[in-house]
Specification:
Number of strands: 12
Oligomer: single chain
Order of helices and strands: HHHHEHEHHEEEEEHEHEEEEH
CATH superfamily of the largest domain: Endonuclease/exonuclease/phosphatase
Distance between the termini: 67 Å
Largest sheet: 6 strands, mixed
Number of helices: 10
Number of domains: 2
CATH architecture of the largest domain: 4-Layer Sandwich
Helix content: 25-40%
């Protein structure tokens, strides 16, 4: 290995160590929280660099990188499918599909194909524009119960349901519009929140997203019975803000223990991260969580299949 290449590896390793340690300070600043989202990438890069440095006999540097691997693995491991999936419960299930359609995406054709193939019971669309409202008559025909709030740019939202809605309405979360609906499933009422939180592309927007998480947690706490929250959270499971939100609500991420599947950005899979989520209350059994194929947006859709406890068990 030439001296120039050795120097490059050393600099790359130093940068990797700094990036891997930044998430430890995620609560202290916006940039540190952004760094927390790329834990899977840190595992891969740190492990490769550790192997190279070990081959160069730079043992201490290699050991430091190995420690960084362990640090990132600790955050990632809860989402890895390490055990055989449990036998799905008997009885009816409900499928929820969420897709950030991208307001600059001008074709619904491929998404409608996915919906036909997957046949979800509820479809949530965010970044739902007046143009998209004109392209989804097929959804209106097959999902007669709906709440539509098309908006300009990235802040429209819509919910289409095959199942009847006991109630439902938009609500404001900071400066964005979300939806709360009570869905009448074969096993009782499911309170469903469809959300699209601010993207943390600046310190101000990151702070706004964190306030939205706080307000959403308070709203979820007021709901009763089975609860599901689905949509584009613009935060990964590896951020302490998302962990705090799950702890406050008592909900479980449907991706946990099943998949590391990313949901954004579709055009750069090497840095893709999971920011679209479904989280459910403890009286709901998670049957499956899957990412679905790309359809022209910068997000992959997600599909969560759930089984509600029978009403008597839920009351107990």
């Amino acid at each position: 290995m030439t001296r120039r290449l050795e120097r490059f590896v050393t600099y790359a390793a130093a940068a990797a160590v700094v990036a891997s340690l930044m998430p430890l300070a995620a609560r202290l600043g916006w940039a540190f929280d952004l760094a927390a989202h790329f834990r899977v990438q840190y595992v891969v890069v740190d492990a490769l660099l550790a192997i190279v440095l070990a081959a160069q006999r730079k043992v201490l540097f290699a050991a430091l990188l190995a420690a960084c691997v362990a640090l990132s693995v600790r955050a990632v491991l809860p989402y890895v499918a390490l055990t055989k999936p449990a036998t799905p419960p008997s009885g009816p299930t409900i499928k929820l599909l969420s897709a950030n359609v991208l307001f600059r995406n001008h074709s619904a054709k491929r998404l409608l194909e996915i919906v036909r193939r997957e046949s979800p019971d509820v479809v949530v669309l965010v970044e739902y524009t007046p143009e998209w409202a004109q392209m989804v008559d097929e959804l209106r025909a097959n999902y007669p119960h709906r709440i539509e709030g098309p908006g300009s740019g990235a802040f429209g939202i819509a919910l289409f349901s095959r199942l009847e809605l006991e109630s439902g309405a938009p609500f404001d979360l900071g400066d964005t519009s979300e939806i709360e609906a009570r869905v009448l499933t074969p096993r009782g009422v499911l309170t469903l929140f469809a959300v699209h939180l601010r993207s943390p592309t600046t310190p101000w927007r990151g702070a706004m997203r964190n306030r939205q998480l706080d307000e959403l947690a308070a709203r979820v706490a007021r709901a009763t019975g089975p609860i599901a929250v689905i949509g584009d959270f613009n935060v990964t499971p590896y951020s302490p803000y998302f962990s705090d939100w799950l702890a406050r609500t008592g909900l479980t991420d449907t991706r946990r223990g099943r998949t590391l599947s990313p949901s954004w950005p579709t055009m750069l899979p090497i840095i893709a991260i999971p920011i679209d989520h479904c989280a459910v209350s403890t009286d709901i059994t998670i049957v499956a969580h899957r990412s679905l194929p790309a359809f022209g947006s910068d997000h992959y859709p997600i599909l969560a299949e759930l089984a509600l406890a029978p009403p008597a068990l839920s009351q107990n």
